[in-house]
Amino acid sequence: MKKTVLMSVMFLLTLLFSCASQPYVDQKTFDELTSSNQFTFMAKRANPTNFDVINVMNSLPNANSARMLDLDYGYTVVIKEKELEVNLPYFGRLFNPSYDTSKNSYNFTSKDFTLSKVQNKKGNWVYTISPKDVSNIRVVYIEVFKNGNAYVSIDSNDRQAISYDGYIMRNEIKKETK
Hints:
Elements: H1 2-18, H2 27-36, E1 39-48, H3 51-59, E2 69-70, E3 76-79, E4 84-88, E5 106-110, E6 113-119, E7 125-131, E8 137-144, E9 149-156, E10 162-169
Antiparallel strand pairs: 1-2, 1-3, 1-10, 3-4, 4-5, 6-7, 7-8, 8-9, 9-10
């Protein structure tokens, strides 16, 4: 009986520690990225707010009701010193759709934007980015948590809001080929 109880407790502790949040960046890298305001947000999940999309997701076989879509690797928001690059998919209602399907997602580069950052009570950094040269985007909010996780929400003029979960990392340096 004691062995069974001991094994149950050990299994429970192992399960609890494996579910703890994993840091994506160490503290030194986190401080460097947030102080320089230059990093890449890598999206892992999309959280649509449109109930039509959620109903379709829930009607699929073996679908979970978490209202989250797992994304492939490569959907990013890149913040550089004088450039903002956004490449994220969109799931929801477009009020002004285009026949060009590349314009129906968030895929733009802004060279004229304002960036402000505030640290909240929990120690997380909240970035507010307002692009001035992209007509349909009002504001991009990025909340960066201490362990490197991040949350992005985009507010647009021509579509419903959507948010993304992911993590931050260093910007990739592109090598020039000769």
